[in-house]
What does this fold into?
Amino acid sequence: MRRLNPSRGMARLLFFLLFFMGVAVTAFRGVAGAVEYIDINNPFIRKIPIAVPFFQAKPGTEVQPEIAENGAARLAETLEFTGFFKILDRAGFLEDPQRMGIEIPRIRFDSWTTVGAELLVTGGFEILDGALAVELRLYDTFKGRLLVGKRYQGARADLKKIIRRFCDDIIYALTGQHGIFTSRIAFVSNGTGNKEIYTCDFDGSDPKQLTRTKAITLSPAWSSDGDWIAYTSYLKGKPDLFIKNLKDGRSHQVTHEGLNITPAWRPFRQELAATLSFTGDQEIYLLTETGKTVKRLTHNQGIDVSPSWSPDGKKIAFVSKRAGTPQIYVQDVESNVVQRVTYYGRHNTQPAWSPAGDRIAYTSLEGGETNIFIVGIDGKEPVQLTRNAGDNESPAWSPDGNLIAFCSYREGPARIYVMTAFGTDQRRLLTLSGEQTDPAWSPRSQKD
Amino acid sequence: MKRKLWIVAALFLVVPGLLFTVSCAKKKVASEPGMIQEDSEAAKAAAEKAREEELARQRALEEQRLKEREAEEAKRKRIAEERARFENEDIYFEFDSATLLPMAQEILKRKAEYLKANPNLTVIIEGHCDERGTHEYNLALGDRRAKSAMQFLMDLGIPASRMVAISYGEERPVDPGHNEEAWAKNRRAHFVIQ
It folds into this structure.
């Protein structure tokens, strides 16, 4: 389904080339608007072949592999993570990284187009008084043009941050949207013997344990500014909600009788939706960040659980058993108008509203197999994203809407995986001791 | 107890008296041997009798105590058995259902009787699910299971104030297996006396 036939592929390539030649100029004139090298809404997206040769030491600076090689490798991996690029093998390059031209007019673009590169990243670095200075450039090799050029200065330890910033500039130049390189992923791991909340970078690096409850702790949820995390924990012997500010340590609790579960922060507001059952019935409520009830959102005898906000904060998608089996519904929180979204399958749960607002990812249990699907908010054309690879659940969108993190049992123990929103490029995010479940992708960090 | 004290006091008075008479005996042997002999034997017999009576009393007391302890033990055992039965007998549910099956209702009726017979006990009703379905939904389903058991007990006259429903969703399976046999065991409500 996702594979192109050759003639169609060529036509698309031609169209693609003509298209970007037209818009590359506008980028240089600094005209605002998306530079659509990469149309993120195209499910048949072709990966752009990109060359990332080792960085070049400037005259007077010694070639240091941890910068020249590791830096280039990290940059390539960071780009590859997005699913937009095909990283070309350095063994095939015609140019010597330490002697090639890294700036116009010394770059020989034909030796890059010859190896199939449509984009080229060059890096040059020097050590000045112990500080690191890095120049990074992105070129369109066919057009022979500079798309992004930046110079960064910092400590040597800042190289990772510099590379992520430049990758964000690349993504912004090519898609018109910022990347995900400042985002983090929260998840649950039971390596200590108890389920606790952890966080890691977008690419699975730098995992850190966030909670030490020594109790069952589940369902992490990020606020839209990334400053707060809410989660469910049995710290007091029953499922309560804990709401924690990651910056100043403020914390609040919601400890009604019965369930206090499935928190979901409302975009742009210090409010969250969550399921409480103190009335005896599982209903979704709107709460302040201090845990006070603003109002009850659902009114239906039976299970209502797992809210997920539309990006404009006006609607929630949620799971309800009102029709006899758990299905996904959408409700306007002002008018209370409810629409059913899923009709296929008898067990559809875990809705995750896409950042673009047009689709909902969810988990479907059908024929004994659990898989991730995606459906338009009108309920039309559900598409299966995972198949024949163990049980797959808990979809979580990246803030740019291009990737979905999820939990899979394909290797036996539960692990966190990432795929594109089209279901391609499925790969494991990280491996820790124990099992990892429940990924939640943070918004982009505002400070970085 | 009082009598025992008297006997002890008497023994305290008599024995040193005897000792004194014995220690003096050698000197007095010549003068009044017969008298001394007689006195000493009478005292001995009295002391012996008192001791035997005391031993018998103690034996009786001991036996009574043992009987009481056995009875208590039996009672305690019976209570523990009833309690264990109350706590160990789970009720089971069908997949994605919180409806009480006939068997579950029978068990709940017995639990209600037990709770009525032990009016000071409060109970935690845990709702559990099998691993199928996602864990958030199963937390809600476990809550419904615990609450339908609680409602049934309330209908049988157990006040809500004596019961707490806690859902564990799929977090605490009794059988870690991934088959229908394990799932059937895990779809349960479990009862814990507080």
Notes: Residues 184-441 of chain A form a domain with the Neuraminidase fold (CATH 2.120.10.30).
